[in-house]
Amino acid sequence: MASWTLKRTHTCGELRATHKDQTVTLNGWVENRRDHGGLCFIDLRDRYGRTQIVFSPQRSAELHAKASGLRPEWVVAVRGVVCPRPGGTVNPNLSTGEIEVEAREFEVLNEAKVLPFPLSDDAEVGEELRLRHRYLDLRRRSMQQNLVLRAKLVQVMREYFAKHNFVDIETPFLVRSTPGGARNYLVPSRLFAGSFFALPESPQLFKQLLMVAGYDRYVQIARCLRDEDLRADRQPEFTQLDVEMSFVQADDVMTMLEGCVAEIMERVLGRKIDLPFRRMPFAEALSLYGTDKPDLRFGMPLWDVADIAKSCSFKVFTDALAAGGAVKGIAATGAARYSRKEIDELSTFAQGFGAKGVAWLKVEEAGLTGSIAKFFQPAELAALRERMHAAPGDLLLFVADKPELVHQVLGALRNHLAGKLDLIKDGEFRFAWVVDFPMFEYSNEEKTIVARHHPFTSPKDEDLAILEEKPLEVRAKAYDLVLNGVELGGGSIRIHRHDLQRRIFKLLGIGDQEAKEKFSFLLEAFEFGAPPHGGIALGIDRFVMLLLGLDSIRDVIAFPKNQKAMDLMTGAPGTVTPRQWKELHIRPEEPPKAT
RNA sequence: GGGGGUGUAGCUCAAUUGGCUAGAGCAUCGGACUGUCGAUCCGAAGGUUGCGGGUUCGAGCCCCGUCACCCUCGCCA
Predict the structure, then answer these.
(1) A129 CA → B49 C1’, Å
(2) What is the 3-state secondary structure (H, E, C) of A142-210?
(3) Of A296, A322, A377, A511, which has the maximum CB count within 10 A?
(4) One domain, residues A384 and A400
């Protein structure tokens, strides 16, 4: 390609009527050509905007003829004169719509083949195709807006934490694999046959060690890697705002983060939000909303109706209660109009979450109706209606089972129905802290208790006494930040004393030997004057996704993986040569077919 | 590993009960056009209906298998 001469003096988004009569040069992509045979218009686009270029045969027949050969997405440089548009042709939808540039000279910097898909935002293109040609997808205005907003958010974060004396410190990418938590991505060591580095699922241990080292306030925008199955809001590599502070209580960390979130909401979205955020104990979140990440943009809480149901003659309810289970329900506002088919669909939905089925009653002016109504005395039906604050037109849905399952199913049903019933207003943001998490939970898989957060989380002081006797009742100094039913992040006050950390490891079945082998550096560090400390990590991709009202994290990540964790553009992961295996002392079970 | 959905022209979609020479809009190409801005008008080209097998006189449609992608449970944040 020959060198080019027409270097831009302005961007495609900045020319206004005040630039009248100036000779300017613009560089950009041809968005569109409107060729009238006589006059010919080109929309020239860059990420700042769009400017109309006009080619007139009177001005230069030669230039005009050349311009008619331009095609969409060619890269061109245009020199011309800024002219106010003639009366009646101003485009109010365009920031540069008052003017146009009358071309005097242009050069084609690069041509473009016909694109595999249109770049206009109203064109809904299959995601597979978009990912395969991500560089084109990222050329679309909506994707550029997403990434620019993300950059702004990160910038505000950095400024906020710098202002509050945080030190931005990078932690390693090649780390030691430690037990528990997410599956690690592994990197074989060349110099140590059979040994592997892990890519960090989070900088957790390093940020704690930085507290031991006295940095007091640490922040990092950190990439985290987890080799787990993907979802719309989960990628194998994602970005966290990672924060750790010394000499703090849980409230200090939460307050610091609230300040950051409020500043982001104001400076990125221009919205004031109220502080402090609501703080909801885990137990309350679970019993009212069936989840530890409640969506507070709508009501429709779970109602416990065990006391009413225990005297009814519906065996499903009474059997569940007799087995130590729960019977709870939700009142779906205005859903009594649902057909039998729609209700069956709700039941199928619930079965996807492990429910055996869903019992239902319709609230009518005259009373409650439905197949299970006959199992209840009139007084019991009235009590149900009162308990659930039900109004005529509501559909009451019940699940009876083990408490965890009842919560899970009704929690999912609640979110599902909110969407179906259109209970959620666009552009609403409801933040809340969920606090007082249980320290431990029982793992059916491992047949033992495991840390709910991670094994460095401190128990609440008042529960220390029952740590060994009733571990499942011990609450942690842990907190999750929840936004619109999505877990944005979480953190905790950490254990900073060697003796307590050993007690916790012991409870978790991490023996002295294993603890020493895997975490000796941490335990040892705690013996050299570790300050009380705690912190939080906040998922930036999710935050940006929610701020933009998007459904997928992939739309706020420049180069995401697909659901199988492949990069459709580059083809990663790809095969490597036998020579590379040999250097790394590894051999695939089945050698890949030659490509 | 399980459940669900989708797959038809470059893109987005349609095709009634199995009757079809598989259509439309946009894009592309050619032509016309001096104030458009999703320009307009005329015309053309464009398809192994993801792939393989089966049922049938006949399959885009039904059956079996398989592949790809998405949502989801488990898992994980």
Answers:
(1) 19
(2) HHHHHHHHHHHHHHHHHHHHHHCCCEECCCCCCECCCCCCCCCCEEECCCCCCCEEECCCCCHHHHHHH
(3) A296
(4) yes
